[in-house]
Design goal:
The complex is a heterodimer of chains A (268) and B (263). Chain A is an all-alpha fold. Chain A has one domain (46-257): MetI-like fold, CATH 1.10.3720. Chain A has eleven helices and no strands. In chain A, helix 3 runs parallel beside helix 6 (130-154) and helix 4 crosses helix 6. Chain A is globular. Chain A starts with 14 loop residues before the first helix and ends in a 14-residue tail after the last helix. Chain B has a domain at 80-157. Chain B has helices at residues 48-56, 95-99, 101-104, 112-126, 141-153, 171-188, 199-205, 240-262; strands at 6-17, 20-32, 37-41, 63-68, 71-72, 80-83, 159-163, 191-196, 208-212, 219-224. In chain B, the strands form two sheets. In chain B, strands 6-7-8-3-9-10 form a six-stranded mixed beta sheet, sandwiched between helices. Chain B has a four-stranded antiparallel beta sheet with strand order 2-1-4-5. The longest helix of chain B is centred in the C-terminal third of the chain and has 23 residues, at 240-262. Chain B starts with 5 loop residues before the first strand and ends with a helix. The chains are: A mainly alpha (268), B alpha/beta (263). The interface between A and B is medium-sized, with 25 and 28 residues.
Chain lengths: 268, 263
């Protein structure tokens, strides 16, 4: 039965009070930051008011374009890396002999910190979008591959046998048991790949680029523009929250059959 | 009655459990005639379930021959319906989609509408009405068993291999299922191999009861149960013949049960 996550007696806050307290806490933090900035001159910490001004300035100029660039790298990269990773993971996961031969290669690949490839990729693919797309694609490919690979090996044999006895063809056994049996694992891969895609694209842009949110950070840093650095970080944070929320939604839908409730964090 | 549907001839099965060879079945001979209901009774771990796995073709015998309808069983035997002890419901499918899965397969390809009707009828039959949209993880053990049973019944295989199918059910529902299973064996002329540790259940249902020894599993005794297919599962147990058979078979079984718990 579904776990009821309602609050127990005497341990209850209404939804409205909770949000009110959260808003007060948030405003207090911002006020404290502002006060600290005003008191010290804000050389290193900037001030929320300055950051807000910078954001408005950017928004009137080319912020949307930078955001679009970063998003484009993420979306295209994921669109390449995710399906390839899932496909190869399932193929190798269901081919134990080949997988055994390739094991050392797979382990080696798994130990590569993908963002460290950014300089190399920039040399290969130049200044445009390509090196970041390749970076995102590579990272998401590897993450999805390893998860799907593990999942395909873990599919319950008895379930597959049961379908086989019913007369299911190899293709039907794959569609009805193997592939859905991997979804938990694929989702685990996506959970990691989505934030990693954001990291990959930003790091790539910070190294060498003429646009994107990573470029905004490195450019602001180059000019010692503290408010600019923080403003770019704020935008990245918002993107991160959106990406995370998308992953939550996707997980809730893909794994709706799972009786165990999601961790309490996703309830907020 | 011409030839046997299921034949096991000098069948032994050895498992390799972490380097230790374990003999699960020791030269078993068993033949099941068409439309016969055979119950296998024995202490747990005696290899009863292994017999079903061999007949289903999910395991090859270490030695001896397993034949179905005269031909050696090689690979999955698609002419049997097999309800394993552990239910193999697909956790990501709702109860109704689990029960109807066999009808979705290309080899049957039942139209969606007819499939829905048959699934609905089957859910009413096993007492799962109202749980169509639930996932297996939301059901009790007994309900999962019933869903697994319904999933097998719905595509009407000619032979049933049942591994303690009613173990998790409450007594009343078990009686109803017994009656229905008897009715079904008559109506569809089914051949059944039924594994249970419940002697009374075996006598209630079967034409023949085989008592297994503790591991390594051998057949210790086989008794014909003379009640015919038209028997009444509810009242049968009050007949003096039932008591006598129970007594007789229990004498065979009780020593083995003791051995089973020691190992």
């Amino acid at each position: 039965m579904r776990v009821n996550r309602g609050c127990s007696e005497g341990n209850c806050l209404s939804e409205r009070t909770t949000w009110l307290l959260r808003a007060i806490l948030g405003l207090a933090l911002i006020a404290a930051w502002e006060a600290f900035g005003a008191f010290t001159g804000g050389t290193w910490t900037s001030k929320p008011s300055l950051i807000a001004v910078r954001l408005v300035q950017w928004a009137q100029r080319d912020l949307a374009w930078h955001v679009a660039t970063t998003l484009q790298e993420i979306v295209v990269g994921l669109a390449i890396g995710v399906p390839l990773g899932i496909a190869l993971g399932i193929v190798l996961g269901r081919a134990p002999i080949t997988a055994k031969i390739l094991r050392p290669l797979i382990l080696t690949l798994n130990s590569i910190p993908v963002v460290a490839l950014a300089p190399l990729l920039i040399m290969w693919f130049g200044l445009g979008l390509q090196p970041k797309i390749v970076l995102v694609a590579l990272a998401s490919f590897l993450l999805l591959f390893f998860n799907t690979f593990a999942g395909a090996q873990a599919v319950d044999r008895d379930m597959i046998s049961a379908l086989e006895l019913m007369g299911a063809s190899a293709r039907e056994r794959f569609q009805k048991a193997v592939l859905p049996g991997c979804t938990t694992w694929i989702m685990g891969g996506l959970r990691n790949a989505l934030p990693y895609a954001l990291i990959g694209a930003t790091v790539g842009e910070m190294m060498l680029a003429r646009n994107g949110l990573g470029y905004l950070i490195s450019n602001a840093a180059g000019q010692f523009d503290m408010a600019g650095i923080y403003a770019a970080l704020v935008v990245l944070m918002i993107l991160g929250i959106i990406v995370n929320e998308l992953a939550n939604r996707l997980e809730g839908w893909l794994l709706r059959w799972r009786p165990v409730a999601a961790p309490a964090w996703s309830n907020m | 009655m011409t030839r046997n549907v299921i034949e096991l001839e000098h069948v032994s099965k050895e498992f390799d459990a972490r380097g230790v060879k374990v003999l699960a079945l020791d030269t078993i001979d068993l033949a099941v005639a068409p439309e016969e209901f055979v119950a296998l009774v024995g202490p747990s771990g005696c290899g009863k379930s292994t017999v079903l796995n061999l007949v289903a073709g999910l395991l090859p015998p270490t030695s001896g021959a397993v034949r179905y309808d005269g031909a050696p069983v090689q690979g999955a035997n698609r002419r049997v319906g097999y309800m394993t002890q552990k239910d193999t419901l697909l956790p990501w499918r709702t109860v109704e989609d689990n029960i109807g899965i066999a009808l979705e397969l290309k080899c049957r390809a039942v139209p969606a509408r007819e499939r829905r009707e048959r699934v609905q009828a089957m859910m009413d039959f096993v007492g799962l009405t109202g749980f169509a949209r639930h996932y297996p993880g939301e059901l009790s053990g007994g309900m999962r068993k019933r869903a697994a049973l319904a999933r097998m019944l719905i595509y009407e295989p000619e032979t049933f291999l049942l591994d303690e199918p009613f173990g998790a059910l409450d007594a009343q529902l078990k009686l109803i299922m017994h009656q229905e299973l008897l009715r079904m064996t008559r109506a569809r002329r089914l051949t059944v191999v039924f594994v249970t540790h419940d002697l009374a259940e075996a006598i209630t249902l079967a034409d023949r009861v085989a008592v297994f020894t503790a591991r390594p599993g051998k057949i210790r005794a086989v008794r014909q149960i003379p009640f015919g297919r038209e028997r009444d599962a509810v009242h049968l147990r009050f007949l003096p013949e039932f008591g006598a058979l129970h007594e007789e078979l229990w004498d065979e079984l009780k020593d083995e049960v003791g051995k089973g718990t020691e190992t």
